[in-house]
From TrEMBL:
Residues 337-361 are annotated as: Disordered. Keywords: Repeat, WD repeat. WD repeats lie at residues 26-51, 74-115, 117-158. It comes from Triparma strigata. The keyword Repeat applies. Pfam families: WD40 (PF00400). This is Uncharacterized protein. It comes from the Eukaryota.
Length: 361
């Protein structure tokens, strides 16, 4: 393979981020919209951030050159941190966790303290930033969706949900939320925050992750049963269609049955192509428009919990940690199953759209 880091190697010869969480699971990865600053949340109650710089290879046969510096770590949460997001200017990181709080970290302050800006009645599973309203949005296991102005402890808006929040994504004017019970709701956030869609998941089994298309025309959702669905809000005959496909499955030697793994994360590239990562330790790049798989990475032989492309789309970060898909009996301990965060340099030819061809994937 070409275009990978050279100074520190992880599985697949990608660049290993120094000082990742060493115990418990890595729950989220997010990039700053203004710089190559990466944050990770984890079940050890911490939020960590790194400055990541890459020099692309001068020729395809040479590896990219990396400089990745650990910058800071906050342990202000009292229980596991389940999600993070950035403010549009990249200065603030917002986090939500099992301590039922939503917190704000000023990266420019030099402090590791976090200001509490919101609270739920149960763990906060997801956080996002609504740029259209300049509000933080949080979804919890208390079946509530709340919007926060950082200057006030009282929510700027609340929505009672049918079930617990399992995953959430917000992009532009579109907010989608995957709930327990295979329910999905979508909101438009401007000019007023209002529910636009309430539907059952197009997949048969429990939703694990959800992500809005870059053009906001629909979303992709992944399940615990190794399937991903592409769903458009408005059907356009001849131009777009809803469909689902199998991924993150391993055939046995006779190919009579498959070992099924959860789709743990979906991340869209600025081109509109996307990645899926799963419990099989595999990364896939996909093109939904041509219905093709663009690239498959060799398995890292451990679960991949989450992933994200940077704003420019030339760095792909993914986190390796046990996802408890096989229960306690599947966990072999931190020495046998060490956590890790890897960075993959993404040349354009790996991720750009391809021409459509006949047949289904």
């Amino acid at each position: 393979m070409s275009g990978f880091g050279s100074s520190m190697s992880s599985a697949n010869n990608d660049h290993a981020v120094p000082l990742p969480p060493t115990c418990d699971g890595i729950s989220s990865l997010n990039w700053s919209p203004t710089a190559n600053h990466l944050v990770a949340s984890s079940w050890d109650n911490a939020v960590r951030y790194w400055d990541c710089q890459v020099a692309p290879p001068s020729v395809s046969s040479q590896p990219a050159q990396w400089q990745v510096l650990p910058k800071s770590e906050s342990t202000a949460h009292q229980k596991p941190v389940l999600d993070t997001c950035f403010s549009p200017d990249g200065r603030f990181v917002f986090s939500g966790g099992a301590d039922k709080t939503v917190r704000m970290w000023d990266l420019q302050s030099g402090s590791t303290d976090m200001q509490q800006i919101g609270v739920h009645d149960a763990p906060v599973r997801c956080v996002g930033f609504c740029q259209e309203k300049q509000l933080v949005v949080s979804g919890g296991w208390d079946k509530m969706l709340k919007f926060w102005d950082c200057r006030s402890p009282t929510p700027a808006g609340t929505f009672q949900l049918e079930e617990r929040v399992y995953n959430m994504d917000i992009r532009g004017n579109v907010l989608v939320v995957a709930l327990a019970g295979k329910k999905i709701v979508a909101y438009s956030v401007s000019p007023q925050i209002q529910q636009q869609v309430s539907m059952d998941s197009p997949l048969k089994y429990q939703s694990r992750c959800i992500s809005v298309f870059p053009d906001q025309s629909g979303f992709a959702v992944g399940s615990i049963e190794g399937r991903c669905a592409i769903h458009y809000f408005t059907q356009k005959p001849g131009l777009a269609e809803n469909f689902a496909f199998r991924c993150h499955r391993q055939d046995n030697s006779t190919k009579t049955e498959s070992q099924v793994h959860a789709v743990n994360g979906i991340a869209f590239h600025p081109f509109g192509t996307f990645s899926t990562v799963g419990g099989d330790g595999v990364v896939n790049f996909w093109d939904k428009d041509s219905k093709q798989r663009l690239k498959v990475f060799p398995s890292v032989n451990e679960c991949i919990n989450c992933a994200a492309f940077n704003t420019q789309g030339n760095i792909f970060a993914y986190a390796k940690s046990y996802d408890w898909g096989k229960g306690a009996s599947g966990y072999r301990g931190p020495q046998a199953q060490p956590n890790g965060i890897s960075l993959h340099y993404v040349p354009e030819e790996e991720i750009k759209q391809r021409q459509k061809k006949g047949g289904k994937r």
